[in-house]
Write a structure and sequence with these properties.
35% strand; six-stranded mixed β-sheet; 20 strands; alpha+beta; Protein Transport Mog1p, Chain A
């Protein structure tokens, strides 16, 4: 038997043995433009890969198996999106079969009832394109959020789980799922309100929104101000500090609460203030505290929120790249856009930003090219750099219309950027 024939037979056995699972797969039929892009994820880097399928199956398998019929091509990508890990699965089907595959999984969600100690699926909302649902696992202590839909020849599935706490956020999963449907050439339908789940309340842990940190009644405690969802007795309970650790003189902890109604769309329409107490083994002193991945630094009798770009101790020089990167991050441009400083002094900053520099991804993609699209921004410093004007034109006209005191000598010889 020739080597080429042997390889062909091995490939055939591999495909036949997969039974529609996401093991070995053909990705050639799922092009880059069909997948979620970095700009859909607030600039987060997108990479090839999927989750541990034994823990987080994608596509989901409510009845223990994937959708039927099987696809002709599949692809998986992943990204860390803020405090969440996001995975997208896209499968290509012959004409008309993608919708049938999604309908098959819809049916599985409603008819497959697992044992009491196994995973459980809860449908939150549906529309003409897909379905939003939660998968409870670890005996109901953790949830993963899914959106499953179809667009023309594609089935799309988005899975979203937490990084600091295990629970996914169904609102984010819904938003990314609808973006995924659009990327694949479809039109997201109008969501339908779900029915309130029947039976006893099922309390699940969620990350709390921290709004402030204060010194406590003794040197070992801090009082953490939080805002919780409210409007029903089952919306929130037990705000507390969890997963306390200390590393390199920095305190790390999560601030969480429990809810039995957070997954009900419109079920908790109000907000309520609450306080959680952090207690350290030793006096806290002047240590920085990181709560839900956000750093807080001591200041007077309280704490101040540290800047995500500048950190807790910003450089004294306002022309330091850290200050300029912080200014770029607040512009309405892709996260990894190339920028160049044309001028910086104590009060004024001029930078150019090419929004197309990351259009083909980090390092570029074969066959992808994007011409430069450069805009010049003029900024003034007060407590941080603030945009005064943005333009592609030469000279001073744009900035002087917005700020007549801008020094003419800094802009009069500037060329057009495009």
């Amino acid at each position: 038997m020739s080597r080429r024939l042997l390889l062909i037979l091995l490939a055939a056995v591999t495909v036949a043995g997969c039974g529609g699972r996401t093991g070995a797969r053909d990705t050639s039929g799922v092009p880059d433009e069909v997948m979620l892009q970095s700009e859909d994820l607030d600039g987060a880097q997108v990479a090839t890969g999927g989750p541990d399928q034994s823990v987080h199956p994608i596509p989901p398998r409510p009845c223990g198996s994937g959708p039927s019929p099987s696809p002709s091509a599949e692809r998986l990508i992943k990204a860390t999106f803020g405090r969440y890990q996001v995975y997208e699965y896209v499968a290509r089907y012959p004409a008309g079969l993608a919708e049938r595959a999604v309908d098959d999984l819809r049916g599985q969600l409603s008819r497959c009832v697992p044992p009491a100690d196994a995973e459980r699926y809860q449908v939150l909302a549906q529309d003409s394109s897909g379905v939003l649902f939660l998968r409870e696992y670890h005996n109901g202590d953790a949830t993963a959020a899914y959106y499953l839909g179809h667009a023309e020849s594609y089935l799309v599935a988005v899975l979203e789980i937490g990084t600091t706490t295990p629970n996914g956020d169904p609102t984010i999963a819904s938003d990314l799922g609808r973006k995924a449907v659009t990327r694949a050439g479809g039109m997201p339908g109008t969501p339908r309100q779900p029915t309130t789940p029947a039976g006893p309340a099922r309390w699940t842990t969620y990350e709390a929104e921290v709004t402030g940190v204060r010194r406590g009644p003794d040197p070992r405690t801090l009082l953490v101000d939080v805002v919780l969802i409210a409007g029903h007795p089952e919306c929130a309970r037990n705000p507390r500090v969890d997963q306390y650790t200390e590393e390199n003189t920095i305190i790390h902890a999560n601030v969480v609460f429990e809810s039995a109604r957070a997954q009900v769309v419109g079920g908790c329409p109000e907000k309520a203030a609450a306080v959680a107490t952090l207690t350290a083994p030793q006096p806290i002193g002047e240590r920085i505290v990181v709560l839900n991945q956000q750093a807080w630094a001591p200041e007077g009798s309280g704490y101040r929120r540290c800047d995500p770009e500048l950190g807790c101790h910003p450089p004294a020089d306002h022309c330091d790249p850290a200050w300029i990167r912080a200014a770029i991050s607040e512009l309405d441009v892709p996260r990894h856009s190339y920028w160049n400083t044309e001028h910086c002094d104590a009060g004024w900053l001029i930078v150019t930003v090419d929004v197309n520099s990351s259009a083909c991804g980090a390092g570029g993609r074969p066959g992808c090219s994007a011409p430069p699209a450069v805009t010049r921004y003029f900024l003034r410093f007060d407590t941080r750099w603030r945009v005064v004007a943005g333009t592609t034109a030469a000279g001073c006209a744009a900035v002087l219309r917005a700020e007549p005191s801008f020094p003419r000598n800094l802009c009069e010889r500037l060329p057009a950027t495009r």
